[in-house]
Amino acid sequence: MVKGGLDAVNISLDTLIEPKFELITRRRGFSRVMDCIEQAAELQAQGKLRSVKVNCVMMRGVNDDEIIPFVEFAMKKKLNVRFIEYMPFDGNRWSDNKFVSYMEMLDVIKKQFPSFHRRREEDKPNDTSKAWKIEGEEGSVGFITSMSQHFCGSCNRLRITADGSIKVCLFGNEEVSLRDRMRSGDDDEELLDVVHAAVWRKAAKHGGKGDMHALASSKNRPMIKIGG
Q1: How far apart are the first and last CA of the chain?
Q2: Which Pfam families match (predicted)?
């Protein structure tokens, strides 16, 4: 894939403990994921990948005891670990009791690593992640703060689901089927008009649902059926 032009890799990993991995994912494969991360880190060190990111959804009582181990993992492998605030979706049993905020994670890390500091110069205008780093280390840490400090105003993401629908907001349940429009004969210009119209209807934040508690009570696809 690298030979074909792949230059960045994102890998989801919510725990560094194999039995817990099987509990969270309900399947085996921990060693395969770790091997993939190792290979990706090596390719990055060789300059063949510009970016390797490991995404970790933080959940209280599940993996919040692994915040420091994940930071140490980022330093050891010289890659970027991104902590993602737990977001409500259909079927993921979201609860505010499991929610660990950005500021809470920061407090934990700063107690262990006092030189942990924000790298605002690395944040691009449309980035979803806030960049942080430990002084003198090559690895880095990011935080995707969708719930406690949303970035909806600068979000430029669009998603196409596997069944051909466009979602202009991860949290919105409104979708437009590009598949159906294509099957009905729409040309590229007509499809572009459909996309433009969908974007203009986009709510100011969180799909128009308000806060995370409102999102938890609203209907949306499970993340596994959205993708991205």
Answers
A1: 19
A2: Mob_synth_C
